[in-house]
Amino acid sequence: VNKLLENLERRYLTLRAGAAEAQKREYLQHLYRYQEWHTFEVNGQKVKGQITGIDIAGRLALLIEQKLQFFQFQEVKFVIEE
Questions:
Q1: d(C-alpha 73, C-alpha 82), whole Å
Q2: How many CB atoms lie within 10 A of CB 60?
Q3: Which end of the chain is more exposed for a tag (fewer CB within 10 A), N or C?
């Protein structure tokens, strides 16, 4: 628990120091399937899309049919293709 709190404090202090963009870049580097085309499920429908990032509210930015759409947690699912 102490290690978790130490890491949270370090991230918080980094944000306060003005490094929000650097943290966002680091987050995107670790984002699963970032900038790759894959099948997703949106409202029960399978669609091809590309994760392009996140918005200021933390919603996932997904490019579908040349239109950028934003999704909250669990509004979109990654489909494992067999």
A1: 25
A2: 19
A3: C
> Please, what are the averages of pLDDT over each run of 10 residues along the chain (82 residues)?
93 88 89 94 95 93 97 93 70
**pTM of the entire structure?**
0.75
29 neighbors 43 (Cβ within 8 angstroms):
no
Q: Report the C-alpha gap between 39 and 56 in whole angstroms.
A: 25
Q: What is the predicted pLDDT for the residue at 82?
A: 64
Residue 81's pLDDT is 77
Which among 75, 41, 38, 37 has a CA at the least distance from the CA of 58?
75
Name residue 26's amino acid: E
Could you tell me if 37 and 50 are in contact, meaning their C-beta atoms sit under 8 angstroms apart? Answer: yes
